[in-house]
Amino acid sequence: MTADIDMQNKSILVVDDDESVRHLIQMTLRRQGYRCTEAANSQEARQLLDIEPFALLLSDIHMPGESGLDLVAYVKSTYEKTAVIIITVIDDIETARRALSFDIYGYIVKPIDKNQIVIGVANALRRRELELKQKNQSRELEGKIKRRTRELSETVEKLKARESELAVKMEELHELNAALKVLLDNREADRVTLEENIQSNVQKLILPCIERLKKGTVRNKSIQSEFRLLETSLKDLVAPFARQI
Prior knowledge:
Layout: H1 2-8, E1 11-15, H2 19-30, E2 35-39, H3 42-51, E3 56-60, H4 68-78, E4 83-89, H5 93-100, E5 107-110, H6 114-216, H7 221-244
C-alpha cells in the first residue's frame, strides 16, 4: 500500500507534440525513479487523466488543437492534487507569465536542459507534498474544531435542560415549603385551641365539681386530702397552658 502511494506521488504525465522532447523528458525522469506517461496532445492527456491520478503534469504550451494553457486551466480546476509545470520556448516569456497566473509550480524553457528538468520536477513535487500535507492538517483541524464545537453545543444544551429541571424542582420545593408552612401554622392553631379547651374544661367543669364534692365530704379528712391532691394535680396540669396562652 505504501509503495503504491509512493509511486502515485512520483507519477508524471508528459504532454508535448514533439516526440523527441517527450522521449528526452521521459528518459531523464525515469533515471530519477519517476514513472512517466506520454501524451501527444491535450485530448490524449485528458483521457489519461480520467483513467489514473498523476502527481505532476508537464505540458507544452503550443500544441495542435487545444492549447497547453487550456489544458492547464482544466487540470487546475478538476484535479487539485496534480501539480503543473509548463514547457515553453525562450522567446515566449509573456505566455509563461500568463501561465503563472494559474498558480503553476514552475516552467521549463526550450531547448530543454536535463538538469533543469530534474530540479524543476523535484521542486514541484516537494511543494505539492507540503501543500497537500498542509491541506490535510487544515482539514483535520477543521474537523476537530467542528467536533469540539458540536460537543460544546451538546454540553450547553444538556446544561440548559438540567437548569430547567432544577428550576422546576425549585418551584416544586417552594410550593412544598409553602404547603408545609400552612400545615404547621394550622397545627399550631389547633394545639392552642386544644390547650384552651382543656384549660377551660378543667377550670369550668372539673374544678367546680371537685369543690362541690369536697363540701359534701367535709367530715372525711381522708377523702378531703385526696380531693386536695387531685385539685393540685389538675392545676399543675393546666398551668403550662395558662402561661403559654
